């Protein structure tokens, strides 16, 4: 097949009989044997170094170019390979994805766990969200479930993501503080964006301090769609549940560990796999029929909300086992590229505005992080499904495409790849977008159904045991207590007062803020004094 990237090139293969191995000796990148790699070529023993020393120049040049940009978020991570099995074929009524319906399949996976705010060299045990990103190398192409260890997110619309991340990262003038949660800019953002409050409750809880990646839940966060072979859609939330249960570190432990072993979670993942104690997770699905879309008192498209499991149970459907460490951190864990848009037939998106913006962001950032459009050819990213298309050339192209013609349709290339269907409807093996009916005016306005920012934060607080509440209060006091700007502290306490009066009182008491009066009328984020101030028209200067 002339257009197939898996094909390689006959011309290259003709070199094979000539290949040699100079007995494992050190060579340059050109395969030239090296006799001395400790002394550069000099004019005389104490003389100047000579430009003609190609080995010196190549060695140093390569070193000079070793670094690539770290991820703009989730820079610090650890990865492992494994496999996924679905328990039985019962999901066939919901999805055409074969890795979710064929129990005879063992689907290879690569998982990367990460912290979000810290840089590549930061400590593992900081208070932060953890990424839980899974690449399924399915027979129908790669499916990436790019989730976190908390089921909700800070914002409802991806257009706020640059603002949010700028507020979370160290302040721009002095790059302080490295700690994600203890500074004015984050809490300023929080007080002005009440949609963050539910996620902030999770972030101040012990969920932000996982004991081990093997003891951490994962969540796809958004509502996705499963689509059956017949084209019927069902809303779905994806959950990973660790078989070891969910366990956290205590705050004091995290502080000591960060100093003594900043690689604590990463080392634990590596060591447990080497020891044969493989981390395992059960995949659970919450399924909601399309006709039930509006039966909840929150919006399924709002990523700051969970679907309570009392309302829709999480159904166990399969098992993930991580049983192989990578061979090379950079080649695999650093260069892996997850993308929410990598879906297979049978899994589709919804109109969640956070999800929709993510669909743009991942590929865009990887184009710069991984140096151009050919990073899907890197071994860790390459699908096990064949790749056949007319995408060509570009930086770091390592496939050797053959044939005269690189366009669709053609008769000249000895086998232009055929389409799986005629584009008019579902075709076996091809991805066809779910034909959702969409009708609306072009507006920049959030639906009223996205406006309740407190009810689920209250639900979360009420679900906590007394000792868990004490940890949450202590976390708010510690993190907010570091905020220098008093009105920001007050603004956050005002929001907490809409979550729970006792919570607000206890936090206020610990950070020198006036205790608030009880709030009987949750304002749903629409009338906070700080908000009206920030939104007030400014006088022009
Ligand atoms: C990276 C999860 C929201 C942009 C990641 C990673 C995870 C993740 C797990 C690390 C992937 C890896 O290990 O390589 C999430 C979740 C979100 C969310 C669960 C909300 C539910 C967003 C939004 C945006 C965004 C709204 C932008 C609009 C990025 C970018 C990266 C990233 C640019 C770096 C990717 C790379 O360089 O490979 N995210 N994210 N994320 N995320 Fe998100």
Q: What's the number of helices?
A: 14
The total strand number stands at 10
Radius of gyration: 27 Å
Shape: globular
Heteromolecules bound: protoporphyrin IX containing FE
Main beta-sheet strand count, sense and barrel state: 10 strands, antiparallel
Describe this structure in words.
By secondary structure, the chain is α+β, with helices and mostly antiparallel strands. The protein has 14 helices and 10 strands. Strands 1, 2, 3, 4, 5, 6, 7, 8, 9 and 10 form a 10-stranded antiparallel sheet that branches. A hairpin with a 2-residue loop joins β3 and β4. α4 crosses α12, α5 runs parallel beside α10 and α11 crosses α13. It is globular, with a radius of gyration of 27 Å. It starts with 9 loop residues before the first helix and ends in a 6-residue tail after the last helix. The N terminus and C terminus are likely disordered. Protoporphyrin IX containing FE (HEM) binds next to β2, β3, β4 and α9.
Features:
globular; binds protoporphyrin IX containing FE; peroxidase; alpha+beta; Catalase; 14 helices; 541 residues; disordered C terminus; disordered N terminus; 26% helix
Q: How would the blueprint of this fold be written?
A:
Blueprint: H1 10-13, H2 54-64, E1 77-86, E2 107-115, E3 130-138, E4 141-148, H3 161-168, H4 184-192, H5 197-203, E5 218-219, E6 224-227, E7 233-242, H6 251-260, H7 264-274, E8 280-289, E9 315-324, H8 329-334, E10 347-348, H9 353-369, H10 455-462, H11 466-481, H12 486-499, H13 501-510, H14 529-535
Antiparallel strand pairs: 1-2, 1-9, 2-3, 3-4, 5-7, 6-7, 6-10, 7-8, 8-9
Helix pairs in contact: 3-4, 4-12, 5-10, 11-13, 12-13
Protoporphyrin IX containing FE (HEM) binds next to strand 2, strand 3, strand 4 and helix 9.
GO molecular function: catalase activity
Protein name: Catalase
Cofactor: heme
């Amino acid at each position: 097949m002339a257009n197939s990237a898996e094909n390689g090139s006959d011309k290259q293969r003709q070199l094979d009989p000539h290949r040699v191995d100079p007995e494992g000796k050190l060579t340059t990148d050109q395969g030239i044997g090296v006799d001395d790699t400790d002394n550069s070529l000099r004019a005389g023993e104490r003389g100047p170094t000579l430009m003609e020393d190609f080995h010196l120049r190549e060695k140093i040049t390569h070193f000079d170019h070793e670094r690539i940009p770290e991820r703009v978020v989730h820079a610090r991570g650890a990865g492992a390979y494994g496999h996924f099995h679905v328990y039985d074929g019962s999901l066939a009524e919901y999805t055409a994805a074969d890795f979710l319906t064929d129990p005879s399949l063992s689907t290879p996976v690569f998982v990367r766990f990460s912290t979000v705010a810290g840089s590549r060299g930061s400590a593992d045990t900081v208070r932060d969200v953890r990424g839980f990103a899974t690449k399924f190398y399915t027979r129908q192409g790669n499916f990436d479930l790019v989730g976190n260890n908390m089921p909700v997110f800070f914002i409802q619309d991806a257009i706020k993501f640059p603002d949010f991340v700028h507020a979370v990262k160290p302040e721009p003038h002095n790059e302080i503080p490295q700690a994600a949660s203890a500074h004015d800019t984050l809490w300023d953002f929080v007080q002005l964006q009440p949609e963050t409050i539910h996620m902030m409750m999770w972030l101040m809880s012990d969920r932000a301090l996982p004991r081990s990646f093997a003891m951490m839940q994962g969540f796809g966060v958004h509502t996705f769609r499963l689509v059956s072979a017949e084209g019927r859609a069902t809303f779905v939330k994806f959950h990973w549940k660790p078989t070891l249960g969910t366990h956290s570190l205590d705050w004091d432990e995290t502080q000591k560990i960060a100093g003594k072993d900043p690689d604590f979670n990463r080392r634990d993942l590596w060591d447990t796999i080497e020891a044969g104690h493989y981390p395992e997770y059960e995949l659970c699905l919450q399924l909601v029929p399309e006709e039930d879309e509006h039966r909840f008192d929150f919006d399924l498209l709002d990523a700051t909300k969970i679907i309570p499991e009392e309302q829709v149970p999480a159904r166990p459907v399969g098992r993930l086992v991580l049983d192989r460490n990578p061979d090379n951190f950079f080649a695999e864990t650093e260069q892996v590229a997850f993308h929410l848009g990598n879906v297979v037939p049978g899994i589709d998106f919804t109109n969640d505005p956070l999800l929709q913006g993510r669909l743009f962001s991942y590929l865009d950032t990887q184009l710069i992080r991984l140096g151009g459009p050919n990073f899907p050819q890197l071994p860790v990213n390459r699908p096990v499904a064949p790749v056949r298309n007319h995408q060509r050339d570009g930086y770091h192209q390592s496939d050797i495409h053959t044939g005269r013609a690189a366009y669709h349709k053609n008769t000249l290339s000895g086998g232009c790849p055929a389409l799986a269907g005629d584009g008019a409807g579902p075709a076996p093996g091809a991805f066809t977008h779910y034909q959702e009916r969409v009708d609306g005016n072009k507006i920049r306005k959030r639906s009223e159904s996205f406006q309740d920012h407190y009810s689920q934060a209250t639900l979360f607080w009420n679900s906590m045991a007394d000792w868990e509440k004490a940890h949450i209060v202590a976390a708010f006091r510690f993190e907010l207590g570091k905020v220098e700007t008093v009105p920001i502290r007050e603004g956050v306490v005002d929001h907490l007062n809409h979550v729970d009066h006792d919570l607000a009182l206890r936090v206020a008491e610990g950070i020198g803020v006036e205790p608030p009066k009880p709030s009987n009328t949750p304002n749903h984020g629409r009338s906070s004094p700080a908000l009206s101030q920030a939104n007030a028209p400014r006088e022009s200067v």
